[in-house]
């Protein structure tokens, strides 16, 4: 039983590492705003799928790692991912019952909240613009959600993570 638990932790951490890598891959300047919020989508999925094992603390740690990787103000991603994880945790039973397109709409809202919190903190620090383009990653994340969900569910079922 302990091996199965540690294997599950390794899979979750492995997917987060892939999310960190995808969030840092260089893109051409015109595509930067089209980058999906990979780590936020992974946090949403793992909180929804394994609420008893991946929760607010895990989301906070993932946010701290993302802050360090991006070189952003320490705690910005941690705060926004923690709030997204809390909302997902509150709604996880309902989210599981939704169809993929309905889940995608909720991902749009949750990643949008993530982006709004991030933008709000940046505006308090004086390092943001006036445009709403910062919400574009929420739209792209919602469009990619069905594929992300299917891949992660397949991984979870293949490795019997419960």
TrEMBL record:
Transmembrane regions listed in the UniProt entry: 6-27, 39-61, 73-92, 104-121, 133-152
Keyword terms, alphabetized: Cell inner membrane, Cell membrane, Cell shape, Membrane, Transmembrane, Transmembrane helix
Chief location of this protein within or outside the cell: membrane
Pfam families attached to this UniProt entry: MreD (PF04093)
Record carries keyword Transmembrane: yes
GO BP annotation list: regulation of cell shape
Superkingdom assignment: Bacteria
GO CC list: plasma membrane
Membrane topology, from the record: Multi-pass membrane protein
Keyword Membrane among UniProt keywords: yes
Subcellular location(s) of the protein: Cell inner membrane; Cell membrane
Family annotation (NCBIfam families): shape_MreD
Record-stated family: Belongs to the MreD family.
UniProt function note: Involved in formation of the rod shape of the cell. May also contribute to regulation of formation of penicillin-binding proteins.
Xref: PANTHER family: ROD SHAPE-DETERMINING PROTEIN MRED (PTHR37484)
Name recorded for this polypeptide: Rod shape-determining protein MreD
């Amino acid at each position: 039983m302990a091996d199965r638990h540690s294997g599950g932790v390794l899979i979750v951490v492995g997917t987060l590492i892939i999310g960190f890598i995808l969030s840092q891959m260089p893109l051409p300047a015109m595509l930067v705003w089209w980058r999906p919020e990979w780590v936020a989508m992974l946090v949403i999925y793992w909180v929804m799928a394994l609420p008893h094992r991946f929760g607010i603390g895990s989301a906070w740690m993932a946010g701290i790692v993302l802050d360090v990787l991006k070189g952003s103000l320490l705690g910005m991603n941690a705060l926004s991912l923690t709030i997204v994880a809390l909302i997902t945790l509150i709604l996880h039973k309902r989210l599981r019952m939704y169809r993929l397109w309905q889940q995608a709409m909720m991902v749009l809202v949750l990643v949008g909240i993530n982006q709004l919190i991030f933008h709000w903190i940046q505006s308090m620090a004086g390092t943001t613009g006036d445009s709403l383009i910062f919400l574009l990653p929420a739209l792209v994340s919602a469009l990619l959600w069905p594929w992300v969900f299917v891949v992660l569910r397949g991984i979870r079922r293949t490795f019997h993570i419960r």
